[in-house]
Amino acid sequence: MSAAPSPESASAEAGGAAARASGPLAGVKVLELGTLIAGPFAARLFGEFGADVIKIEDPKGGDPLRKWRKLWPEAGGTSLWWAVQARNKKSVTVNLKADEGKEIVRRLAKEADVVIENFRPGLLDKLGLGYDVLAKENPGLVMVRLSGYGQTGPYRDRPGFGAIAESMGGLRHITGYPDQPPPRIGISIGDSIAALHGVIGALMALHHRNVNGGSGQVVDVALYEAVFNMMESVVPEYGVYGMVRERTGASLPGIVPSNTYPCRDGSIVIGGNSDPIFRRLMIAIGRDDLANDPDLAHNDGRVPRTQEIDGAIAAWLAERSIDDALAVLNAADVPAGRIYSVADMFTDPQYVARQMIQQFRWRGEVDVALPAVTPKFSETPGGTRWLGPELGEHTDEVLRSLGYDVEYIARLRAQQVI
């Protein structure tokens, strides 16, 4: 299936004969055991680049994400988020508490390159599906384990969601304005960051297995540690100076100028923090005195005069519209941009040229816009082969591939194993 090049293009039906796997991960087999965000997002990335992803779901309702946020149809439908989070995955329903269900998972894991799970630590082991058990049959297996606090430590058994990880990992403490409580970011960023770490770890482990002659292994991703890994210089700053970075609103602390500034009709973001860009910015706004001030030639000299510099920029912008300001700043080669809503993304020429929003027909019912697969590859690009599947849509197909006959599959269904 070929995705439409822009939101205005004709819709395409996802799936069918054209859904053959391609991409840099074609041939890699992934088994997803998990729900909601972190584990499924990691598996989604594998599927977008050609891996064969089998998602195990509870026969009684499946992944709760199927009912999160806006649904189609609105009454009793399926989450539009599901269309993208589960694209390119095969949905297989399995009751993990049934012995026959566990056997199905073990057989799938025996053929898998990667198992991704985000249950609370210890649950898979109690079910007889821990790494030690699965690796006996498949020594090359890579298992990505995503959890709130990791597989070890005193917090191991606590429930941990992305919001808690963002708090413990330090992100919430430095986000927002100093006179207000820390806000949350409007997406599940903690889960997504952890998922990216899981994918990176899995690919490293596969490289070690395939190229260095190593065995399989466990990739242990704690959500709070994934967030903590993004915290830039806060650790050495505290370790050397005892400095605790605090909330600074829209500015980037210690890097000047980098802030959000009001214009007549809204706000823009300006990143003028490199030395040559700062000079070009000051000249563009008519402040040659600041551009030529030797004390401001480097960032460490600008930081003590942050208020003065931000004030000069704000004064210049206050008299201009966003479009007028951006025209001047773009001509001066200064990084600057408006703050986009999703509506802006649908019509922006850069988004359209890069085909970042693509239309698909979902379940023969509705045209749904999805974000394009990223990053872009010149030779082996990823893509959308089909959208989020119906619950258990691929159960029979996958079980037949394991050697189960029609009668046995019917018996498993009658016993509510699948």
TrEMBL record:
<dbReference type="InterPro" id="IPR050483">
    <property type="entry name" value="CoA-transferase_III_domain"/>
</dbReference>
<dbReference type="Pfam" id="PF02515">
    <property type="entry name" value="CoA_transf_3"/>
</dbReference>
<keyword id="KW-0808">Transferase</keyword>
<protein>
    <submittedName>
        <fullName>Formyl-CoA transferase</fullName>
    </submittedName>
</protein>
<dbReference type="GO" id="GO:0008410">
    <property type="term" value="F:CoA-transferase activity"/>
</dbReference>
<dbReference type="InterPro" id="IPR003673">
    <property type="entry name" value="CoA-Trfase_fam_III"/>
</dbReference>
<dbReference type="InterPro" id="IPR023606">
    <property type="entry name" value="CoA-Trfase_III_dom_1_sf"/>
</dbReference>
<dbReference type="InterPro" id="IPR044855">
    <property type="entry name" value="CoA-Trfase_III_dom3_sf"/>
</dbReference>
